[in-house]
Amino acid sequence: MDRFATLFGVIAILLWSMSVALTRSLAEALGPFGAAASIYTVSGIMVWMASGKPTLRGQSPAYLILCGLLFVFYMVAFSLAIGLAHSRQQTLELGLINYLWPSLTLLFAVPLLKLKVRWWMWPGAALAFAGVLWAISGGHGLDVHQLLRNVRSNPVAYGLAFGAAIAWALYSNLVRIFSKGTGVLPLFLLATGAVLWALYFTYSSTRISMTWRAMTELVAMVAVTAISYQCWDIAMKKGNATLVAALSYFTPLSAIFIAGLWLNTLPGASFWPGVGMVVAGSLLCWTASRGK
User: Fold this and answer.
1) Are 38 and 197 in contact (CB under 8 A)?
2) For the stretch 34-56, what's the b/e string if a residue is b when 16 or more beta carbons lie within 10 angstroms of its beta carbon?
3) Which of the pair, 154 or 212, is modelled with greater confidence?
4) Cα–Cα distance between 45 and 276 in angstroms, integer?
5) Cβ contacts of residue 178 below 8 Å, gap of 6+?
6) DSSP string of 188-217, one letter each residue
7) pLDDT at position 1 over 60
8) Which of 3, 130, 182, 184 is buried deepest, with most CB atoms within 10 A?
9) Between the CA of residue 113 and those of 108, 143, 233, 277, what are the distances in Å?
10) What is the pLDDT of residue 266?
11) Separation of alpha carbons 151 and 114, rounded Å
12) Torsion angle of alpha carbons 101, 107, 109, 112, nearest 10°?
C-alpha cells in the first residue's frame, strides 16, 4: 500500500466535509441544476488542466462505461438531492443519507473484492441505517409513520440521496477492479456537467445570476470537487482503502456540523443521535474488516 496515496484519501475526506454546505448555498443562489452544472463543468476543466489530457488507451470498457455511469449518476443525484431539499433542515437529513456510502462500500466489497469480514459487520451496517432512519424521522426516534411522512414530502430528493450513496459505494469498489493507469477523471466530471446542463435547459426556470458570494462559493466548491475526487481516485487505486474508508466514517459528523454553521441551521439535539449511530455503525463495519 502506498502511504502517500492513503494521505490523499484523508485530504479528500476533509474537503468533502464542506460539500453539503457549499452545494446547498449555491443551489439557493443559482438553482439546483445551474449550481451543479457550473460546479462539475468548471471542476472538469480544472482537473484536465492540472493532470493533462486523459488517456483512454489501455483502459477497460468496463471502467469507462460502468464506472463512468456510476460516477456521473452519483454526482448528479447528490447535487440535485441537496438542491431540491425543501428546507435547510431537510438538507442535513439528505446529507446524512449520502454518508451511508462508507458502510455500503465495505458491504459491497464482500462480494466484489472477496473481502473477508467478521460477524459484527452486519449489525454495524444495520446500526448505520438505523441512524439515518432516526434522523429522517425528525427527532421522533424510529417512528415509521413520521419517517414515511417526511419521505413522502419530497420523495425525489430522498430517492436521489439513497441512490447516490449506493452508486458511490459501487464505484469505489469497481474502480479498483477495472481501472488501469491514471484514469479519466476529467472526462467523468465533464460528462457530469454535460448531463446537468441538459437538465438545466430542459427543466430549470431559474436563471443563473452570479453574485460575489455565489462566485466565491463556486470557486471554493470547484476547488473542493476537483481536488477531492482526484485524491479519492488515487487513494482507492493505490492506498489503504480500508483505513481511508474507516476515517471517512467521521465525515457525517464534520459535514453536518459545517453545513449547520454555514447555513445557520444547526440541527437540534434529537438529530445528533442519528449522526452518532451512522458513525458508530460504520466504525463497527471497519473493525469487522480489519486484518482480513
Assistant:
1) no
2) bbbbbbbbbbbbbbbeeeeebee
3) 154
4) 37
5) 60, 62, 63, 66, 67
6) HHHHHHHHHHHHHHHH--PPP---HHHHHH
7) no
8) 184
9) 8, 36, 17, 26
10) 76
11) 34
12) -110
Measure the N-to-C terminal CA separation of the chain; round to a whole number of Å: 15
- Euclidean distance between CA atoms 190 and 105, whole angstroms: 25
Three-class HEC string of 160-179? HHHHHHHHHHHHHHHHHHHC
> What does the alpha-carbon distance between residue 12 and residue 16 come to, in Å, rounded to a whole number?
6
Measured N-to-C along each axis, helices 185-203 and 212-238 cross at an angle, to the nearest 10 degrees, of: 140
Distance between CA 173 and CA 192 in Å, rounded? 20
Average the pLDDT over 167-195 and give the result. 87
* Domain coordinates in residue numbering, the chain: 3-289
Mean local confidence (pLDDT), 148-153: 85
Q: What is the mean pLDDT of the chain?
A: 84
The confidence band for 182, taking pLDDT boundaries of 50, 70 and 90, is low
Q: How far is CA 270 from CA 21, 253, 278, 285, in A?
A: 20, 14, 14, 24
What Rg, from alpha-carbon coordinates, does the chain have?
18
The mean pLDDT value for 29-38 works out to: 88
* CB-based contact 72:167 (threshold 8 Å): no
Q: Please write the tens of the pLDDT for every residue from 160-169.
A: 999 999 999 9
Quick one: what percent of the chain has pLDDT higher than 70?
A: 92
| CB-side neighbour CA atoms (13 Å) of 21 | 23
